[in-house]
Amino acid sequence: MLKWYKEAAKNSDVVISSRIRLARNLKKYPFSIKLNDQQANQLVQEVKEAGKVFDTQTDKRYNSCNVNVLSEIDKTAMVERHVISPLLVEKEQSTGLILSEDEKISIMINEEDHLRIQSVTGGMNIGEAYKTANLIDDITNELFDYAFSEKYGYLTSCPTNVGTGMRASYMVFLPALTLAGRITKLAEELGKYGVALRGTYGESSKSFGSIYQISNQKTLGSTETEIIEKLNGIVEQVMRQERRQREYLLINSFDEMEDKVYRSYGILKYAKQVSSDDAMTLLAQLKLGIDMELIHVGQNYNIHELMMEIQPGNLQYQLDKAISCTQRDKFRADYIRKRLPDIV
To answer: Which intervals hold domain Phosphagen kinase C-terminal (predicted)?
Structure first.
């Protein structure tokens, strides 16, 4: 089954993925911050056991686990693949996960809220992500009574999630706007409309390979449909800005951009060691070159899939062992060399 980051998707030159995340709490338990260890463990086991119905009520297969007992490599790799959040990894209490085999649906248990239902699709397809998340939410609501107020909506640990409890987000690739130094200004502009521009892994993270997340900041006072429509309109404007900036680069800096793209390809093809940060920068330049048709490769190649696979946790996950930073840099360079497509 294809993972979300392996899909051929709409507007993938700019939009990498679409995500819906629903924050839910169970009426019978205190909020996560107030849970004692016994309650946390009971919550995780109860939700995991009840989650077995997803296999029969959806068209996917699911696995579940206790996240806090996983190896550091496993947890890091799942954060890198956007399956779980860094906050879930950091919690010392019992935490859990229900995950579809294609990794498009995940339910984090005892993160900031009791449940974080997440649905991800490749490219610009947030309507499909919402449809899937809503289905999982309906099934879960049949199993548990949610903490809900007729006046305020879904009750959550953080006041900014009260209401729909929904975060709609796009992961976007903005290399041209990054090169132009316009990201800070863009973030300020989006903030005026209640939309946040964050790093690759969300709040308080930095951007790697010119990849950012754009999401709604408020959930109270708007319906799910209104949140999605507003975000779609904003992301379409961001896409236009990014594409206009790429056109500007083609017209005004063609030779410089072409040289940079081919240099990036050459380093990736022949380097014997490459760090994670350098690899992301070089792969971002190569992806931009392919999208702008500055360089042509012999197949419809998914650069973002390679970006995911060469992260520190996922490299060690493939080897099934921990290795040093220097060893990772060597293995990463070899891994990239073997998977880069040939230039036409």
So the answer is: 14-245
Residue 147's H or E segment, with its range, is none
C-alpha span between 215 and 234 (Å, rounded):
10
The per-residue pLDDT for 204 is 64
For 315, half-sphere exposure in the C-beta direction (CA atoms, 13 angstrom radius) is: 24
Rounded mean pLDDT of 298-321? Answer: 90
Query: Is 310 flagged in the annotation as binding?
Result: no
Do the annotations mark residue 201 as ligand-binding?
Answer: yes
Contacts for 330 with CB less than 8 Å, ≥ 6 apart: 272, 273
Q: Say whether 21 counts as a known binding-site residue.
A: yes
Q: Within 13 Å, how many C-alpha atoms sit on residue 133's CB side? A: 29
What is the C-alpha separation between 298 and 134, in angstroms, rounded? 40
Strand (E) or helix (H) holding 271? none
CA gap 274, 291 in Å, rounded: 23
Contact (Cβ atoms closer than 8 angstroms) between residue 270 and residue 233: no
The answer to the question of whether 205 is labelled as a binding residue is no
Instruction: Quick: pLDDT tens for 102-111.
Output: 999 999 999 9
Q: Is 246 annotated as a binding residue?
A: no
**244 in a labelled binding site:** no
241 with 176: CB under 8 angstroms?
A: no
| 168 annotated as ligand-binding | yes
For the sheet with 62-66, list strands across it. Answer: 62-66, 96-100, 105-109, 115-122, 15-24, 166-173, 211-216, 195-198
The CATH superfamily assigned to 4-243 is Glutamine synthetase/guanido kinase, catalytic domain (3.30.590.10)
Instruction: Report residue 152 CA to chain centroid gap.
Output: 28
Structural domain spans, the chain: 4-243, 254-339
3-class SS letters over 188-256 = HHHHCCCEEEEECCECCCCCECCEEEEEECCCCCCCHHHHHHHHHHHHHHHHHHHHHHHHHHHHHCHHH
- Under the banding of pLDDT at 50, 70 and 90, the label for residue 117 is very high
Kind plus residue range of the DSSP H or E element containing 19: strand 15-24
